[in-house]
Amino acid sequence: MATDHELSDFLRSVERRAFKRTAFAVRDDEAALDIVQDSMIRLAEKYADRPAAELPLLFQRILSNATMDWFRRQRVRNAVVQNFSEFESDAEGGEFDLLETLQLVDDTTRTESAADSVGRVQILLAIEEEVSQLPQRQREAFLLRYWEELDVAETAAVMGCSEGSVKTHCSRAVHALAKALKAKGITP
Amino acid sequence: MNGLRRTSLGPPEPAPHQEALQARFARRIAGALSRRSDDLPHDIAERLRVARLHAVDRARELRKLGAAPAVHLQSGGTLTMSGPSWWLRLASLAPLVLLLVGLLFIQRSYVEQQIRAAAEIDAAILTDDLPPQAYSDPGFTEFLKSPRSVE
Q1: pTM above 0.80, yes or no
Q2: DSSP letter string over A43-93?
């Protein structure tokens, strides 16, 4: 059973990422804060007696479900059907060179002077913008897999899809990001 | 922005290598996102902190409720403290026990009522004047011959 201290430490470690991930999805900071807060309360009320090791996966599931609930409520409220896959693209990004982009990433993250700090913030903003522009499922898979550091099986469990789908979403997300960043001449 | 440097790769990369490149790139993007999330506006960071404290408090409250002894109000109006588990289980069985006892009582009183009614009829028949036609009834004749009728 997770102690109060373990629960607090866990929530502290995920709260900012949870907020950003939710804000990417709902594009509304206030709503994202509400969703994260609700998810924290749900975790505390229903699963605080579970071992600390189980909390990450449980929290990601709760957060994903809470986000989906928010979209459902919005759909009802606005009577507008939101198609999460509207930005899905069939393009596989075959023309870009991932190693080349990675090389650029290495170059720009290695050195930073005070004069570069403004540029660095702009780069981080641009990366964030590109991530937010990803199709919803691709972004979800990418962030769970690489930001929350869940493995493929855990990501599939949270997203309610197959492991193959997770791999496909992640691959497409990486290719889309690399292509977009390369086009802008921006590297993380 | 930073200058672009083109790198020629030649033939397509094998799948495992491509996957490793993909993972490295993704982790760098994730690193950039982490740096951004470290710079959240103060009000948002503060609200997240308050939400976290609220959640931990809630978990603590629920744990206390689960561990604390239950308080029962007895019929006399006095409060007694007792362990929550087996008293509650016993109390939840009480309605079932009451129902069974009630059913048994109803069945028993129904049977007794039937016996009393039959006895009254028998007594009325035995104490009443016997009509002469009764002796022509084969059942009554049989009744008179049976040992019980002698008693």
Answers
A1: no
A2: HHHHHTTS-GGGHHHHHHHHHHHHHHHHHHHHHHHHT----GGGG------
